[in-house]
């Protein structure tokens, strides 16, 4: 016995790989509720943190840098004059109305009044006035539109009650601007990363090229290539006419010795050496041996664009300047020491050599780590820089203008000139944001469609817009690469949320837990790297750089040094980052292929937080989560304590990340916070998405944005152009964690419909739905459409103005029917019913409004009526009337007209699984099937929708929903988790239902039981705002008119009618009373059928039949039985051909081609 | 105990709808219900009377459950359909809004008010034949809703409950006031018209908001709009039947598991012998979840079925009618329809001599 026990122990010992006190067989204690980190993250960052962070960075940091870089204004006239900006600040939004006492303003007021939510930009200036230096703080130079919920927005940090007082929705994500009353979003732009080497091959041309787009802080952008051409390597740049042989380039950059060049590029690798030797040869052939010769060679080929006239500089100087400042501008050059640049070029060359040798060494353009996202802040910074420079040059020229005057009555004060600079900056911002045209000549930037109107169709559409990323690729290019799903998108970009069609894969959406970095200062990082033992690169030669154990250390793409211990270096670096000694958004990773360590601190990288795993244990423990639950700790505490950290895509690829705790092995470095965060906010609405066929989730992402629901807590205070609202929105029975996090349960867009999956009546084919009339009577699917109608009561330059008038009386002294809702103030009363043709703003305009010579009494001018009349065929109700004035003192009137719609035939509905359908039939309640409890379905869905769509998630949603209804709880369908089918079935059994969710139904028509069991339960259905067949139903009396109207619009038939002059065929189109074409395919059918006589009739007799006389002798057409060619009437015959054929013959004859008719008796 | 005749009917396989694992069999009776080929089932009133049973199982203030035995599904279904769609009730049809400053907009408020059930006996009112008919005191009841919300000065300090802070924070159905017209004051003196449920929330108000509307209630039927439907639900199910197979008894160790496959009370398990027996009285409680079919060990032990002509009706009244009056009411509607058809048929017979199309009178 004991023996056996010992044996077992021995075996156990062998099985048990003890590892730091933890055996492999030990159950791993899991951190309960680690997903709570997600709400904590969102609490700190919010849903649209990327926009807001970027904007904050701009107003707090970047704007100051821009001003610092352009801080001096001098005069060409008076050399003693100078003006310096010492500080710049963006204030808080305020009211610009001159007579306002309370200057505070809310974004909502801006929306309603069509004004801009902007804040003053104030600078502190120092300048000379006479002999003294004056300092003036708080000089206003313009106004900057403020992003909602940013640092400068008054909504930031307000609680729900305070927001309610400002009629703002607490769930609104912010991150957009209010410009001239419209909400504008600056979409995230995707670009290729700057200052990094990208190696690509063109297998068709056999070209290998390394390219690098340099971008420095000054906006200059240029692209440098090192590319192969006929086996040799050249440096190519826009500012040099000709491709520079790489050896010449390197020599010009100060590396003279061929040996050194070879070492720096090919190193000691034989393969690279032999591939490179041809280049050395070429330089020798061209007779370029020295530094100076190389510069001369390049100098003659540099594009010189110099405006300043002066003595022509020698070629080598031009070359030196170009190489120092334009080529690879991002590599820092101290004095004229170009060595760092030479090493950079050498590295590019080496990368080309590597790629020539091994095809696998090329980079992937579509890899997310090679992408940078450009956000509102960066775009605004560019815009501001441009505007500020123009502002300064305008200021300079007006100062010059004043100073030029020889005598002045009083001392020149630059401040006064500044006051009269106009609103160049303000209007520049407003124009750019409201049109979306970013055309900055200074930075060679010409971009249209940068901003979009925030879609307020539903809460989700607004939210979806804030996470959207648009790509710079043209949509027409037929390459699949940029559109394909990249493995590196994992967790960063939502794999489901992309549009269908031309923008598919190019427009992406951020995942739930992503963050986009902003710039972090580079210098301290370089210093830190040196302190951690990095050797300076300028001290190294090729032998060291490409030595077998050396790793090159790069900071933001520029090479700074070498290290022999990359792992130690990186782990030390990370340790410092985790300790909070440097920004948490600085990424570091080892690239083993290139023997390089990369440190990235640039803005626009996508990153996301992850739990750090050390010694096989996640650093976040249940205790930490407890603190989080208690509200003691925040997400930032987790960061500060080094429990979680942000990883960008590159660093993520250098880590070993466990999806679940049970997957942790000794080499694991990180643990995912929650797998469902790999989906975005929009895809997060789908219950059980991991059970669906993936395109279905993509379809739902598109449709979720069309769903009619609640759009915000302030929806009844909004006056939008078009607003769709659901009357009775419900939160879904089957929720997801994402739904709770983004607040979809508080602003839902849909209703839980009881669905029977069965066939009914035949009006449910092709995804049509059957609706229960009683459900509609009780309010299911009811929605409101609110439409804005706005007008200005204008004041004209000639002193006249528009006016509002009360209803005019007809000859009987009665108010006309169409004016009956207009009240004494000339506006329709709130709550009045507006019928088609009714006037709701009785505006009158002066007849001479545009006559600028008019000087008489404004009150005495004659007026003409210019009322606003209601055009829609369906009556509406006046919901709201707003009378206000805009920024330029024009009276603004907005009238909101509401229609309440109940679902009709043809209305579009969809579940959350990409299964849309139109209402095909509305059935009375008594005709609907019912189950043992007497429950009727609200909707009947055809089961044929399932097999091909494979939306198993929808089935599970029904099951979970049913279990939820029966147990009085909401169930969860969170991705990669959620309530289990087994548990749901158990609840169903406990409540006396079938475990599979199938009920025994009785037909409402026959009263007999149905032969099949029917899958029956609640599914969350969305009503979509895009109405497929509007006004098809004639059941509503009021819409009868519309029906007739619509049909009248489309109806068309013709027996005879006009013909085209040229061909004598019937005209085309309804507007020209045209014929209905029997097209090619129809013709094919008739040919196939052999209906020759019908063909003849359709194509000729009823169209353009024409009698011609043809001569059987010569085969040409004559007339009146006379052949003009043969001068005879002997063998003339008459035949019927299409006029078009006759036309063809004549046209051919005009081209000197004789078509001869050979006639035969049939 | 079941009587001889019901027992005959209940356990006669001819009357069974088979409930199987994945399908239901024998759902329809024959083309002529109750008749079988080569047998004499000629209709006999006495026999029918003997078979026909209506027995109330449960009656409460708002609902009734009764058994209807011995008719065809078409008849039972006709009553169900009539209850839902054709028994008339009184509901608000027109809403005249004088003032409404609440968040609930006019159309929605009107829809909500329409759905409020009123306790008016439809028998005392006429139907407005067309929508343009003149409103009279015979066909229209007028209600008035005039509510204004204001702050409650006596509210306890620090209260956050709107119902305490404000007066009339909720607009309830009890706020509907009946305004007698013409002779209505005397006609309805015994039971003044009002909503059957005083606690239906129609909307919510906050200080400064008010609602002032007039409503006209008329007589209508459920097929026109769900608001005229007198019942919350009217439905039936067939009597469930569990038939144990004597050939294959349930093993004693699985008895409890077997019992759990059915609704509580359907299966009795002898505590000592673990023998299975059926509780005839509780058979109706079976929910027909078919759980027993899911377990392979019970295969062949039992057969589920439902009795085709034994309807377990369940009607929940939400309007004026006390639940027990609903079935008779539906029967009288049906009789009216039959009388209508009879008149039409007789007219047809009389008209048959003159050839030509017959114009059917409006039902």
UniProtKB/TrEMBL annotation, chain A:
One Gene Ontology term of the molecular function aspect: ribonucleoside binding
Family: Belongs to the RNA polymerase beta chain family.
Swiss-Prot/TrEMBL GO biological process terms: termination of RNA polymerase III transcription
Keyword Mitochondrion listed: no
Domain RNA polymerase beta subunit protrusion: 46-417
Subcellular location per the Swiss-Prot or TrEMBL entry: Nucleus
Oligomeric form and interacting partners: Component of the RNA polymerase III (Pol III) complex consisting of 17 subunits.
Assigned keywords, A-Z: DNA-directed RNA polymerase, Metal-binding, Nucleotidyltransferase, Nucleus, Transcription, Transferase, Zinc
RNA polymerase Rpb2 domain: residues covered: 194-374, 453-516, 553-614, 635-667, 1074-1159
Gene3D superfamilies: 2.40.50.150, 3.90.1100.10, DNA-directed RNA polymerase, subunit 2, domain 6, RNA polymerase alpha subunit dimerisation domain
Enzyme Commission number(s): 2.7.7.6
Domain DNA-directed RNA polymerase subunit 2 hybrid-binding: 682-1028, 1044-1072
Function per UniProt: DNA-dependent RNA polymerase catalyzes the transcription of DNA into RNA using the four ribonucleoside triphosphates as substrates. Second largest core component of RNA polymerase III which synthesizes small RNAs, such as 5S rRNA and tRNAs. Proposed to contribute to the polymerase catalytic activity and forms the polymerase active center together with the largest subunit. Pol III is composed of mobile elements and RPC2 is part of the core element with the central large cleft and probably a clamp element that moves to open and close the cleft.
One of the record's GO cellular component terms: DNA-directed RNA polymerase complex
Xref: InterPro entries: DNA-dir_RNA_pol_su2, DNA-dir_RNAP_su2_dom, DNA-dir_RNAP_su2_hyb_sf, RNA_pol_bsu_CS, RNA_pol_bsu_protrusion, RNA_pol_Rpb2_2, RNA_pol_Rpb2_3, RNA_pol_Rpb2_4
Listed name of the protein: DNA-directed RNA polymerase subunit beta
Enzyme class: transferase
Reaction(s) this enzyme catalyzes, per UniProt: RNA(n) + a ribonucleoside 5'-triphosphate = RNA(n+1) + diphosphate
TrEMBL record, chain B:
InterPro entries: DNA-dir_RNA_pol_30-40kDasu_CS, DNA-dir_RNA_pol_insert, DNA-dir_RNA_pol_RpoA/D/Rpb3, RBP11-like, RNAP_Rpo3/Rpb3/RPAC1, RNAPI/III_AC40, RNApol_insert_sf, Rpo3/RPB3_RNA_Pol_subunit
Keyword Ribonucleoprotein assigned: no
Record keyword Flavoprotein present: no
Top-level taxonomic group: Eukaryota
A molecular function GO annotation: protein dimerization activity
Pfam families: RNA_pol_A_bac, RNA_pol_L
Subcellular localization: Nucleus
Keywords for the protein's UniProt record, in alphabetical order: DNA-directed RNA polymerase, Nucleus, Transcription
Domain spans labelled DNA-directed RNA polymerase RpoA/D/Rpb3-type: 63-344
CDD domains: RNAP_I_II_AC40 (cd07032)
GO terms (BP aspect): DNA-templated transcription
Gene Ontology cellular component annotations, sorted alphabetically: nuclear DNA-directed RNA polymerase complex; RNA polymerase I complex; RNA polymerase III complex
Gene3D superfamilies: DNA-directed RNA polymerase, insert domain, RNA polymerase, RBP11-like subunit
Family: Belongs to the archaeal Rpo3/eukaryotic RPB3 RNA polymerase subunit family.
PANTHER family in UniProt: DNA-DIRECTED RNA POLYMERASE (PTHR11800), DNA-DIRECTED RNA POLYMERASES I AND III SUBUNIT RPAC1 (PTHR11800:SF13)
Name of the protein: DNA-directed RNA polymerases I and III subunit RPAC1
Species classification: Eukaryota, Fungi, Dikarya, Basidiomycota, Agaricomycotina
